[in-house]
Structures are given as C-alpha cells and as structure tokens.
Amino acid sequence: MSQIQPPTHTPWIDRFNTPTIESLLEQYEGSASSLAQNALEGLTEIMESPPSVEWKGLPWRWTCVYRASGEVEPSVYLVATPDWPSIALPVPQELAAEMLAKRGSKYLKETLLHSCQVGQIRWAEWSIQGKAQLSDVLGLASLVINGQPA
C-alpha cells in the first residue's frame, strides 16, 4: 500500500510560517531567478533599505514590502508570484496621466491604463519577464519614490 504524500507548498502560500526573502526567491529557476534577484537589488538600491516580508493576503500572499524612510504606508512591493516575479507600485494619478499622454514604454503604459484607481492613486502591477521590463519598472519606481528616474 502506498503512502499518500501531503502536497508540497511553496513558502509564498504558507500563511503560518514567515519565509525569508531567500526562501521566497528560491522557487524561481533560470532567467526568472536572475530577474527576481535583480528586482530585489534594484528596489533595495532605490529605497536605500531592504524590504520586510509581510503577509498581504490574496492574491499577493507573502510579499517583499518597501517603505520610504519615515513612511507608514508601503511605497513598492516585490511579489513572489509562482511563475515570474512582479512589482506592484502605487502611482499618483497625476504622474500616471502624464505618462499615458507621452511617448514611452508601451509595457508601462498598458499596465497603467488598465490598473485600478483608488482615489488619486493607480495601483499597477507588472509581471517581470525580461530585463527591459525590469529596467522600465525600476525607472518608474525611482521616479515615483524619488521624483527622478534612475
């Protein structure tokens, strides 16, 4: 008689055990792994501090959360979704409107256009599947957080 094996769960979905950043990123292989690591390093450089790992419920679960110095509300999120890492960023409506009106990254604009707006903030989330995409999102994150592109 064979034993039934319990399903394996990634640390990302195990609400009752706080993972480390490293264990969250271990799920990635190949280019997804390097993109996740580069996203972590890029956001840490922009924010000038490491993230905290926080449970954000569905759909983000355990997420790397960055806060600007002295701020209570998060500034940017690195979400360890199973297939590819993603970056979520609350973008002020004024900046989003300005970006949508100008020529620029179609990748950024498409997501901003279809993002949820709450008050004066557009909540956008980008799945990072390439270096150019990561570069675009890090540039926008730097603009939102520091008021200037990276």
Please provide a brief summary of the model.
It contains 5 helices and 6 strands; from the N terminus they run H-H-E-E-E-E-H-H-E-E-H. With 150 residues, it is α+β, with helices and mostly antiparallel strands. It is globular.
What can you tell me about this protein's structure?
This protein has 150 residues and is an alpha+beta fold. It has a single domain (11-144), classed as Aspartate Aminotransferase, domain 1 (Alpha-Beta Complex). The protein has five helices and six strands; from the N terminus they run ααββββααββα. A six-stranded antiparallel sheet has the order 1-2-3-4-6-5. A hairpin with a 2-residue loop joins β5 and β6. α2 runs parallel beside α5 (131-146). It is globular, with a radius of gyration of 16 Å. It starts with 20 loop residues before the first helix and ends with a helix. The mean pLDDT is 91.
Output the keywords.
alpha+beta, Aspartate Aminotransferase, domain 1, 150 residues
Task: List the SSEs and their pairings.
Layout: H1 21-25, H2 30-47, E1 52-55, E2 62-66, E3 76-79, E4 86-92, H3 93-101, H4 106-113, E5 116-118, E6 121-127, H5 131-146
Antiparallel strand pairs: 1-2, 2-3, 3-4, 4-6, 5-6
Helix pairs in contact: 2-5
Number of domains: 1
Tell me the helix content. 25-40%
CATH class placement: Alpha Beta
DSSP strand (E) fraction? 15-25%
Class per helix and strand makeup:
alpha+beta
**What Rg do the Cα atoms give?**
16 Å
Residue windows where pLDDT falls under 50 for at least 5 positions: none
Average per-residue pLDDT, rounded, comes to: 91
Major beta sheet summary: 6 strands, antiparallel
Number of helical stretches of at least 4 residues: 5
Measured distance between first and last alpha carbons = 60 Å
Strand order of the largest sheet: 1-2-3-4-6-5
